[in-house]
Amino acid sequence: MNTKDIKTLGALKSSGYQTKSIKDELRDNLKVRIKEGKKAFEGIHGYDYTVIPELERAILSKHNINLLGLRGQAKTRLARLMVNLLDEWIPVVEGSEINDDPLKPISRYAQEKISEEGDETPIEWMHRDDRFFEKLATPDVTVADLIGDVDPIKAANLRLSYADDRVIHYGMIPRANRSIFVINELPDLQARIQVALFNILQEGDIQIRGFKLRLPLDMQFVFTANPEDYTNRGSIVTPLKDRIGSQILTHYPQNIDIAKTITAQEAKKDGRQEDTIKVPELAKDLLEQISFEARDSEYIDHKSGVSARMSITAFENLLSTAERRILKTGSEETTLRFGDFLGVIPAITGKVELVYEGEQEGAAFVAMELIGAAVKTLFPEYFPKIEKLQKPDATTPYDDLVEWFFESSGFELPDDLSDSEYKEQLDSIEPLNELIQKYQPNIENSDKYFMKEFLLWALVEHKKLSKQRFSKGLKFKDLYGSYISGL
Predict the structure, then answer these.
(1) Long-range contacts of range 382-385, CB-CB < 8 Å, 24 or more positions apart?
(2) What is this structure's pTM?
(3) Contact between residue 229 and residue 235 where contact means Cβ atoms under 8 Å apart
(4) Residues 64 and 245: beta-carbon distance below 8 Å
(5) How far, in whole angstroms, is CA 469 from its chain's centroid?
(6) Helices 445-461 and 363-378 sit at what angle, rounded to 10 degrees?
(7) pLDDT by 10s per residue, the chain, length 487
Protein backbone atom coordinates (compact mmCIF):
# COMPACT_ATOMS: atom_id res chain seq x y z
CA MET A 1 0.00 0.00 0.00
CA ASN A 2 1.18 3.50 -0.83
CA THR A 3 1.97 5.31 2.42
CA LYS A 4 -0.15 8.33 1.48
CA ASP A 5 -3.20 6.07 0.95
CA ILE A 6 -3.33 5.52 4.70
CA LYS A 7 -5.95 7.96 6.00
CA THR A 8 -6.84 6.72 9.50
CA LEU A 9 -5.06 5.76 12.69
CA GLY A 10 -6.34 2.21 12.40
CA ALA A 11 -4.91 1.78 8.91
CA LEU A 12 -1.61 3.24 10.12
CA LYS A 13 -1.40 0.67 12.92
CA SER A 14 -2.27 -2.15 10.52
CA SER A 15 0.48 -1.10 8.12
CA GLY A 16 3.10 -1.78 10.77
CA TYR A 17 4.35 1.80 10.75
CA GLN A 18 6.92 2.41 13.49
CA THR A 19 7.34 5.78 15.13
CA LYS A 20 10.84 7.22 14.91
CA SER A 21 12.29 10.40 16.43
CA ILE A 22 13.63 13.06 14.09
CA LYS A 23 17.18 12.50 15.33
CA ASP A 24 16.84 8.78 14.56
CA GLU A 25 15.51 9.64 11.10
CA LEU A 26 18.53 11.82 10.39
CA ARG A 27 20.92 9.24 11.81
CA ASP A 28 19.45 6.24 9.95
CA ASN A 29 19.23 8.00 6.59
CA LEU A 30 22.77 9.36 6.97
CA LYS A 31 24.07 5.86 7.71
CA VAL A 32 22.54 4.68 4.43
CA ARG A 33 24.12 7.57 2.50
CA ILE A 34 27.56 6.90 4.00
CA LYS A 35 27.37 3.16 3.30
CA GLU A 36 26.36 3.81 -0.32
CA GLY A 37 29.11 6.40 -0.77
CA LYS A 38 26.59 9.15 -1.56
CA LYS A 39 27.07 12.78 -0.58
CA ALA A 40 24.79 13.95 2.20
CA PHE A 41 25.36 17.64 1.49
CA GLU A 42 25.28 18.30 -2.26
CA GLY A 43 26.48 21.69 -3.50
CA ILE A 44 28.80 22.32 -0.53
CA HIS A 45 32.44 22.69 -1.57
CA GLY A 46 35.67 22.80 0.41
CA TYR A 47 34.29 21.09 3.52
CA ASP A 48 34.84 17.44 2.52
CA TYR A 49 37.62 16.84 5.05
CA THR A 50 36.75 19.45 7.66
CA VAL A 51 33.17 20.53 8.34
CA ILE A 52 31.21 17.70 6.68
CA PRO A 53 32.80 14.85 8.71
CA GLU A 54 32.19 16.80 11.94
CA LEU A 55 28.58 17.47 10.97
CA GLU A 56 28.02 13.82 10.11
CA ARG A 57 29.50 12.77 13.46
CA ALA A 58 27.15 15.19 15.25
CA ILE A 59 24.13 13.75 13.42
CA LEU A 60 25.21 10.19 14.20
CA SER A 61 25.54 11.25 17.84
CA LYS A 62 22.01 12.74 17.73
CA HIS A 63 23.28 16.13 18.89
CA ASN A 64 21.82 19.58 18.59
CA ILE A 65 24.36 21.57 16.59
CA ASN A 66 25.91 25.03 16.61
CA LEU A 67 27.61 26.10 13.37
CA LEU A 68 30.17 28.73 14.31
CA GLY A 69 31.82 30.82 11.62
CA LEU A 70 32.14 34.19 9.92
CA ARG A 71 29.55 35.43 7.44
CA GLY A 72 29.26 33.80 4.05
CA GLN A 73 30.51 30.35 5.10
CA ALA A 74 27.38 28.37 4.09
CA LYS A 75 26.18 27.80 7.68
CA THR A 76 22.49 28.23 6.84
CA ARG A 77 22.93 26.28 3.61
CA LEU A 78 24.25 23.30 5.57
CA ALA A 79 21.29 23.44 7.94
CA ARG A 80 18.81 23.55 5.07
CA LEU A 81 20.42 20.57 3.38
CA MET A 82 19.81 18.45 6.49
CA VAL A 83 16.17 18.26 5.34
CA ASN A 84 17.29 15.77 2.68
CA LEU A 85 18.19 13.33 5.45
CA LEU A 86 14.62 13.20 6.76
CA ASP A 87 12.08 10.53 5.78
CA GLU A 88 10.08 11.71 2.78
CA TRP A 89 6.69 11.53 4.53
CA ILE A 90 5.54 11.27 8.16
CA PRO A 91 1.97 10.89 9.51
CA VAL A 92 0.40 13.61 11.69
CA VAL A 93 -2.96 13.88 13.40
CA GLU A 94 -5.20 15.89 11.09
CA GLY A 95 -5.71 19.43 12.40
CA SER A 96 -2.91 19.27 14.96
CA GLU A 97 -1.09 22.58 15.48
CA ILE A 98 2.11 20.87 16.56
CA ASN A 99 2.32 17.97 14.09
CA ASP A 100 1.31 15.30 16.60
CA ASP A 101 2.49 11.76 15.88
CA PRO A 102 -0.73 9.65 15.70
CA LEU A 103 1.01 6.86 17.63
CA LYS A 104 2.47 9.20 20.27
CA PRO A 105 0.22 12.25 20.60
CA ILE A 106 1.43 14.93 23.00
CA SER A 107 -1.06 17.81 22.63
CA ARG A 108 -4.41 17.96 24.41
CA TYR A 109 -6.14 18.37 21.04
CA ALA A 110 -4.63 15.19 19.55
CA GLN A 111 -5.12 13.11 22.70
CA GLU A 112 -8.81 14.06 22.96
CA LYS A 113 -9.38 13.48 19.25
CA ILE A 114 -7.88 9.99 19.41
CA SER A 115 -9.78 9.27 22.60
CA GLU A 116 -13.06 10.22 20.90
CA GLU A 117 -12.53 8.72 17.43
CA GLY A 118 -10.13 5.87 18.13
CA ASP A 119 -8.93 4.03 15.02
CA GLU A 120 -11.08 6.29 12.84
CA THR A 121 -8.97 9.33 13.78
CA PRO A 122 -8.06 10.98 10.46
CA ILE A 123 -4.38 11.44 9.70
CA GLU A 124 -2.52 13.38 7.04
CA TRP A 125 1.00 13.10 5.65
CA MET A 126 3.66 15.78 6.02
CA HIS A 127 6.48 16.07 3.45
CA ARG A 128 10.04 16.60 4.59
CA ASP A 129 10.22 19.95 2.77
CA ASP A 130 7.60 21.24 5.24
CA ARG A 131 9.66 20.14 8.22
CA PHE A 132 12.20 22.97 8.19
CA PHE A 133 11.69 26.12 10.24
CA GLU A 134 14.06 29.05 10.44
CA LYS A 135 14.17 32.11 12.66
CA LEU A 136 16.64 34.99 12.48
CA ALA A 137 17.50 36.01 16.02
CA THR A 138 16.95 39.73 16.53
CA PRO A 139 16.81 41.72 19.77
CA ASP A 140 13.02 42.10 19.48
CA VAL A 141 12.28 38.36 19.48
CA THR A 142 10.15 37.41 22.50
CA VAL A 143 9.44 34.23 24.43
CA ALA A 144 5.89 34.42 23.07
CA ASP A 145 7.25 34.37 19.49
CA LEU A 146 9.35 31.27 20.07
CA ILE A 147 7.45 29.28 22.67
CA GLY A 148 3.94 30.70 23.04
CA ASP A 149 1.57 32.75 25.16
CA VAL A 150 -2.02 32.99 26.35
CA ASP A 151 -4.35 34.16 23.55
CA PRO A 152 -7.07 36.44 24.98
CA ILE A 153 -9.03 36.39 21.72
CA LYS A 154 -9.17 32.59 21.76
CA ALA A 155 -10.24 32.69 25.41
CA ALA A 156 -13.04 35.13 24.60
CA ASN A 157 -14.27 33.25 21.51
CA LEU A 158 -14.29 29.89 23.28
CA ARG A 159 -15.52 31.43 26.54
CA LEU A 160 -12.71 29.81 28.46
CA SER A 161 -10.94 30.82 31.65
CA TYR A 162 -7.30 31.82 31.46
CA ALA A 163 -6.68 28.79 33.67
CA ASP A 164 -7.71 26.47 30.80
CA ASP A 165 -4.74 25.33 28.68
CA ARG A 166 -6.87 25.55 25.52
CA VAL A 167 -6.29 29.33 25.53
CA ILE A 168 -2.60 28.80 24.73
CA HIS A 169 -1.28 30.01 21.41
CA TYR A 170 1.79 27.99 20.51
CA GLY A 171 4.93 29.77 19.30
CA MET A 172 7.28 28.81 16.47
CA ILE A 173 9.14 26.07 18.31
CA PRO A 174 6.13 23.91 19.33
CA ARG A 175 4.69 24.39 15.84
CA ALA A 176 7.97 23.00 14.50
CA ASN A 177 7.58 19.75 16.46
CA ARG A 178 9.15 16.81 14.58
CA SER A 179 11.07 19.27 12.40
CA ILE A 180 14.48 20.90 12.03
CA PHE A 181 14.47 24.29 13.71
CA VAL A 182 17.24 26.76 12.90
CA ILE A 183 18.00 29.89 14.88
CA ASN A 184 20.38 32.08 12.90
CA GLU A 185 22.78 34.48 14.64
CA LEU A 186 22.08 33.04 18.09
CA PRO A 187 24.14 35.67 20.00
CA ASP A 188 21.66 38.34 18.86
CA LEU A 189 18.98 36.63 20.94
CA GLN A 190 18.60 38.35 24.31
CA ALA A 191 20.01 36.37 27.23
CA ARG A 192 16.58 35.98 28.88
CA ILE A 193 15.23 34.47 25.65
CA GLN A 194 18.18 32.08 25.43
CA VAL A 195 17.36 30.96 28.99
CA ALA A 196 13.85 30.01 27.82
CA LEU A 197 15.47 27.43 25.51
CA PHE A 198 17.16 25.51 28.35
CA ASN A 199 14.31 23.11 29.10
CA ILE A 200 13.50 22.53 25.45
CA LEU A 201 17.05 21.44 24.67
CA GLN A 202 17.59 19.36 27.79
CA GLU A 203 14.22 17.90 28.81
CA GLY A 204 12.23 18.56 25.65
CA ASP A 205 9.36 20.25 27.46
CA ILE A 206 8.00 23.80 27.45
CA GLN A 207 6.46 26.20 29.95
CA ILE A 208 3.94 28.88 28.97
CA ARG A 209 2.63 31.49 31.39
CA GLY A 210 2.72 29.20 34.40
CA PHE A 211 0.86 26.32 32.73
CA LYS A 212 2.28 23.00 33.79
CA LEU A 213 2.69 21.53 30.33
CA ARG A 214 4.65 18.40 29.62
CA LEU A 215 5.19 18.48 25.89
CA PRO A 216 8.15 16.27 24.99
CA LEU A 217 8.87 18.00 21.69
CA ASP A 218 10.77 16.02 19.09
CA MET A 219 13.18 18.56 17.55
CA GLN A 220 16.50 18.84 15.79
CA PHE A 221 17.96 22.23 16.67
CA VAL A 222 20.64 23.89 14.56
CA PHE A 223 22.08 27.23 15.62
CA THR A 224 24.38 29.51 13.69
CA ALA A 225 26.65 32.16 15.16
CA ASN A 226 29.64 34.34 14.37
CA PRO A 227 32.67 33.85 16.61
CA GLU A 228 33.44 37.54 16.98
CA ASP A 229 31.39 40.18 18.75
CA TYR A 230 31.86 42.73 15.98
CA THR A 231 28.41 44.33 16.18
CA ASN A 232 28.40 45.13 19.91
CA ARG A 233 25.86 42.44 20.54
CA GLY A 234 25.59 39.76 23.21
CA SER A 235 26.96 36.26 23.34
CA ILE A 236 25.67 32.73 23.82
CA VAL A 237 25.00 32.20 27.52
CA THR A 238 27.16 29.46 29.01
CA PRO A 239 24.36 27.09 30.16
CA LEU A 240 22.88 27.15 26.67
CA LYS A 241 26.25 26.35 25.08
CA ASP A 242 26.51 23.46 27.53
CA ARG A 243 23.24 22.04 26.22
CA ILE A 244 24.29 22.12 22.55
CA GLY A 245 25.88 18.78 21.74
CA SER A 246 28.33 19.73 18.98
CA GLN A 247 29.88 23.04 18.00
CA ILE A 248 31.33 22.96 14.50
CA LEU A 249 33.69 25.59 13.10
CA THR A 250 33.17 26.59 9.47
CA HIS A 251 35.75 28.37 7.31
CA TYR A 252 36.33 30.14 4.01
CA PRO A 253 37.55 28.30 0.86
CA GLN A 254 41.14 27.24 1.34
CA ASN A 255 42.23 27.66 -2.28
CA ILE A 256 41.21 29.47 -5.45
CA ASP A 257 39.90 26.36 -7.24
CA ILE A 258 37.30 25.73 -4.52
CA ALA A 259 36.39 29.42 -4.45
CA LYS A 260 35.88 29.43 -8.24
CA THR A 261 33.60 26.40 -8.01
CA ILE A 262 31.45 28.13 -5.38
CA THR A 263 31.24 31.37 -7.37
CA ALA A 264 30.34 29.56 -10.61
CA GLN A 265 27.60 27.65 -8.77
CA GLU A 266 26.09 30.61 -6.93
CA ALA A 267 26.40 33.52 -9.39
CA LYS A 268 23.13 34.55 -11.01
CA LYS A 269 24.11 34.53 -14.66
CA ASP A 270 21.84 35.44 -17.51
CA GLY A 271 22.00 32.77 -20.20
CA ARG A 272 22.76 35.42 -22.81
CA GLN A 273 25.81 36.52 -20.82
CA GLU A 274 27.20 32.99 -20.90
CA ASP A 275 26.68 32.81 -24.66
CA THR A 276 28.17 36.18 -25.53
CA ILE A 277 30.93 36.79 -22.96
CA LYS A 278 34.08 34.66 -22.77
CA VAL A 279 35.77 34.74 -19.37
CA PRO A 280 39.50 33.87 -19.34
CA GLU A 281 40.56 31.51 -16.55
CA LEU A 282 43.02 34.11 -15.30
CA ALA A 283 40.11 36.53 -14.78
CA LYS A 284 38.33 33.97 -12.60
CA ASP A 285 41.52 33.38 -10.59
CA LEU A 286 42.02 37.10 -10.15
CA LEU A 287 38.46 37.61 -8.96
CA GLU A 288 38.84 34.99 -6.23
CA GLN A 289 42.28 36.25 -5.26
CA ILE A 290 40.73 39.63 -4.46
CA SER A 291 38.73 37.95 -1.66
CA PHE A 292 41.83 36.18 -0.36
CA GLU A 293 43.66 39.52 -0.30
CA ALA A 294 40.74 41.17 1.49
CA ARG A 295 40.89 38.59 4.29
CA ASP A 296 44.52 39.58 4.93
CA SER A 297 44.23 43.32 4.25
CA GLU A 298 45.30 45.79 6.94
CA TYR A 299 42.40 48.03 5.89
CA ILE A 300 39.67 45.45 6.56
CA ASP A 301 38.30 44.22 9.88
CA HIS A 302 39.23 40.53 9.99
CA LYS A 303 36.74 39.88 12.78
CA SER A 304 33.83 40.58 10.45
CA GLY A 305 35.18 38.33 7.72
CA VAL A 306 34.86 38.66 3.95
CA SER A 307 31.85 36.73 2.72
CA ALA A 308 31.94 34.41 -0.29
CA ARG A 309 29.08 36.62 -1.50
CA MET A 310 31.66 39.26 -2.39
CA SER A 311 33.16 37.08 -5.13
CA ILE A 312 29.71 36.03 -6.30
CA THR A 313 28.33 39.57 -6.68
CA ALA A 314 31.66 40.80 -8.09
CA PHE A 315 31.49 38.12 -10.78
CA GLU A 316 27.96 39.18 -11.65
CA ASN A 317 29.15 42.80 -11.92
CA LEU A 318 32.09 41.72 -14.06
CA LEU A 319 29.82 40.02 -16.58
CA SER A 320 27.44 42.98 -16.58
CA THR A 321 30.29 45.40 -17.26
CA ALA A 322 31.24 43.42 -20.35
CA GLU A 323 27.58 43.06 -21.36
CA ARG A 324 27.10 46.83 -21.15
CA ARG A 325 30.03 47.28 -23.54
CA ILE A 326 28.45 44.84 -26.00
CA LEU A 327 25.23 46.84 -25.92
CA LYS A 328 27.03 50.15 -26.43
CA THR A 329 29.27 48.97 -29.27
CA GLY A 330 26.61 46.85 -30.98
CA SER A 331 28.87 43.78 -30.89
CA GLU A 332 27.61 40.21 -30.93
CA GLU A 333 30.10 38.92 -28.35
CA THR A 334 33.21 39.89 -26.41
CA THR A 335 35.95 38.60 -24.16
CA LEU A 336 36.29 39.94 -20.65
CA ARG A 337 38.91 42.70 -20.34
CA PHE A 338 41.03 43.61 -17.37
CA GLY A 339 39.51 47.09 -17.40
CA ASP A 340 36.16 45.47 -16.66
CA PHE A 341 37.42 44.87 -13.12
CA LEU A 342 36.77 48.53 -12.39
CA GLY A 343 33.11 47.54 -12.57
CA VAL A 344 33.42 45.23 -9.54
CA ILE A 345 34.33 48.04 -7.13
CA PRO A 346 30.70 48.58 -5.97
CA ALA A 347 30.46 44.86 -5.17
CA ILE A 348 33.61 45.07 -3.04
CA THR A 349 32.87 48.30 -1.17
CA GLY A 350 29.51 47.05 0.05
CA LYS A 351 30.86 43.73 1.34
CA VAL A 352 33.80 44.71 3.57
CA GLU A 353 33.98 46.26 7.02
CA LEU A 354 36.83 48.76 7.12
CA VAL A 355 39.02 49.50 10.12
CA TYR A 356 39.92 53.11 10.95
CA GLU A 357 42.80 53.25 8.44
CA GLY A 358 40.52 51.90 5.71
CA GLU A 359 37.84 54.48 6.51
CA GLN A 360 40.45 57.21 6.23
CA GLU A 361 41.57 56.03 2.80
CA GLY A 362 38.04 55.41 1.53
CA ALA A 363 36.26 52.26 0.35
CA ALA A 364 37.01 52.81 -3.36
CA PHE A 365 40.74 53.22 -2.64
CA VAL A 366 40.74 50.00 -0.61
CA ALA A 367 38.96 48.16 -3.44
CA MET A 368 41.61 49.28 -5.93
CA GLU A 369 44.33 48.24 -3.48
CA LEU A 370 42.80 44.76 -3.28
CA ILE A 371 42.73 44.42 -7.07
CA GLY A 372 46.35 45.54 -7.21
CA ALA A 373 47.39 43.13 -4.46
CA ALA A 374 45.68 40.26 -6.30
CA VAL A 375 47.62 41.13 -9.46
CA LYS A 376 50.94 41.12 -7.58
CA THR A 377 50.17 37.77 -5.97
CA LEU A 378 49.29 35.99 -9.23
CA PHE A 379 51.92 37.68 -11.42
CA PRO A 380 54.87 35.33 -10.60
CA GLU A 381 52.77 32.35 -11.74
CA TYR A 382 52.86 33.67 -15.31
CA PHE A 383 55.93 35.89 -15.67
CA PRO A 384 59.41 36.26 -14.11
CA LYS A 385 59.26 37.81 -10.68
CA ILE A 386 60.08 41.50 -10.35
CA GLU A 387 62.45 42.03 -7.43
CA LYS A 388 62.00 45.03 -5.15
CA LEU A 389 65.70 45.80 -5.07
CA GLN A 390 67.83 45.52 -8.19
CA LYS A 391 71.37 46.56 -9.05
CA PRO A 392 71.46 49.83 -11.01
CA ASP A 393 72.93 48.18 -14.11
CA ALA A 394 70.87 44.98 -13.91
CA THR A 395 68.70 44.09 -16.88
CA THR A 396 65.20 42.62 -16.62
CA PRO A 397 62.83 41.01 -19.13
CA TYR A 398 60.65 44.12 -18.92
CA ASP A 399 63.22 46.75 -19.87
CA ASP A 400 62.17 46.96 -23.54
CA LEU A 401 58.51 47.36 -22.58
CA VAL A 402 59.29 50.10 -20.05
CA GLU A 403 61.52 51.79 -22.64
CA TRP A 404 58.64 51.71 -25.14
CA PHE A 405 56.48 53.70 -22.73
CA PHE A 406 59.36 56.07 -21.95
CA GLU A 407 59.68 56.94 -25.62
CA SER A 408 55.95 57.25 -26.25
CA SER A 409 53.57 59.88 -24.93
CA GLY A 410 51.42 57.20 -23.25
CA PHE A 411 48.94 54.54 -24.14
CA GLU A 412 45.19 55.00 -23.83
CA LEU A 413 42.68 52.19 -23.52
CA PRO A 414 39.10 53.56 -23.56
CA ASP A 415 36.41 51.42 -21.92
CA ASP A 416 34.07 51.27 -24.90
CA LEU A 417 36.43 50.24 -27.68
CA SER A 418 35.06 47.59 -30.00
CA ASP A 419 36.87 44.26 -29.80
CA SER A 420 38.76 44.87 -33.01
CA GLU A 421 39.91 48.34 -31.87
CA TYR A 422 40.84 46.99 -28.44
CA LYS A 423 43.00 44.23 -29.93
CA GLU A 424 44.58 46.62 -32.41
CA GLN A 425 45.56 48.98 -29.59
CA LEU A 426 47.26 46.25 -27.56
CA ASP A 427 48.91 44.68 -30.61
CA SER A 428 50.59 48.02 -31.32
CA ILE A 429 52.92 47.52 -28.34
CA GLU A 430 55.56 45.24 -29.84
CA PRO A 431 57.58 44.54 -26.64
CA LEU A 432 54.31 43.47 -25.00
CA ASN A 433 53.65 40.99 -27.82
CA GLU A 434 57.18 39.59 -27.42
CA LEU A 435 56.79 39.04 -23.67
CA ILE A 436 53.52 37.16 -24.14
CA GLN A 437 55.06 35.05 -26.91
CA LYS A 438 58.09 34.21 -24.78
CA TYR A 439 56.47 33.46 -21.41
CA GLN A 440 52.92 32.42 -22.39
CA PRO A 441 53.38 30.85 -25.85
CA ASN A 442 50.49 28.40 -25.51
CA ILE A 443 47.82 30.81 -24.36
CA GLU A 444 44.59 30.86 -26.37
CA ASN A 445 44.35 33.78 -28.75
CA SER A 446 41.11 34.99 -27.13
CA ASP A 447 42.78 35.07 -23.69
CA LYS A 448 45.95 36.72 -24.93
CA TYR A 449 44.65 40.26 -24.66
CA PHE A 450 43.51 39.87 -21.07
CA MET A 451 47.00 38.57 -20.30
CA LYS A 452 48.52 41.65 -21.97
CA GLU A 453 46.47 43.98 -19.79
CA PHE A 454 47.32 41.88 -16.76
CA LEU A 455 51.03 42.38 -17.51
CA LEU A 456 50.59 46.16 -17.81
CA TRP A 457 48.70 46.34 -14.50
CA ALA A 458 51.40 44.23 -12.84
CA LEU A 459 54.12 46.63 -14.01
CA VAL A 460 52.08 49.48 -12.53
CA GLU A 461 51.81 47.63 -9.20
CA HIS A 462 55.58 47.05 -9.23
CA LYS A 463 56.21 50.76 -9.89
CA LYS A 464 57.57 50.21 -13.40
CA LEU A 465 54.73 52.11 -15.11
CA SER A 466 52.03 54.54 -14.03
CA LYS A 467 48.29 54.23 -14.59
CA GLN A 468 45.72 57.01 -14.62
CA ARG A 469 41.98 56.94 -14.88
CA PHE A 470 40.36 59.44 -17.22
CA SER A 471 36.69 59.91 -18.07
CA LYS A 472 36.58 57.36 -20.87
CA GLY A 473 39.11 54.77 -19.76
CA LEU A 474 42.69 54.19 -18.63
CA LYS A 475 46.02 55.66 -19.62
CA PHE A 476 49.33 53.88 -19.04
CA LYS A 477 52.53 55.95 -19.01
CA ASP A 478 56.18 55.77 -18.17
CA LEU A 479 56.54 56.19 -14.41
CA TYR A 480 59.16 58.94 -14.44
CA GLY A 481 57.68 60.70 -17.43
CA SER A 482 54.54 61.29 -15.43
CA TYR A 483 56.58 62.94 -12.69
CA ILE A 484 58.43 65.15 -15.20
CA SER A 485 55.20 66.24 -16.89
CA GLY A 486 53.71 67.01 -13.48
CA LEU A 487 50.78 64.59 -13.99
Answers:
(1) 382/282, 382/439, 382/440, 382/451, 382/454, 383/435, 383/439, 383/440, 383/455, 383/458, 384/439
(2) 0.86
(3) yes
(4) yes
(5) 33
(6) 110
(7) 567 789 999 999 999 899 999 999 999 999 999 999 999 999 999 999 999 999 999 999 999 999 999 888 999 999 999 999 999 999 999 999 899 999 999 888 899 899 999 999 999 999 999 999 999 988 888 888 888 776 666 656 666 665 566 667 788 988 999 999 999 988 888 888 888 888 788 776 676 666 666 778 899 999 999 876 534 456 888 888 888 999 999 999 999 999 999 999 988 876 667 788 999 999 999 999 999 999 999 999 888 888 889 999 999 999 999 999 999 888 888 999 999 999 999 999 888 888 888 888 888 999 999 999 999 999 999 999 988 766 667 788 999 999 999 888 778 898 888 999 999 999 999 999 999 999 999 999 889 999 999 999 999 999 999 988 887 888 999 876 544 444 4
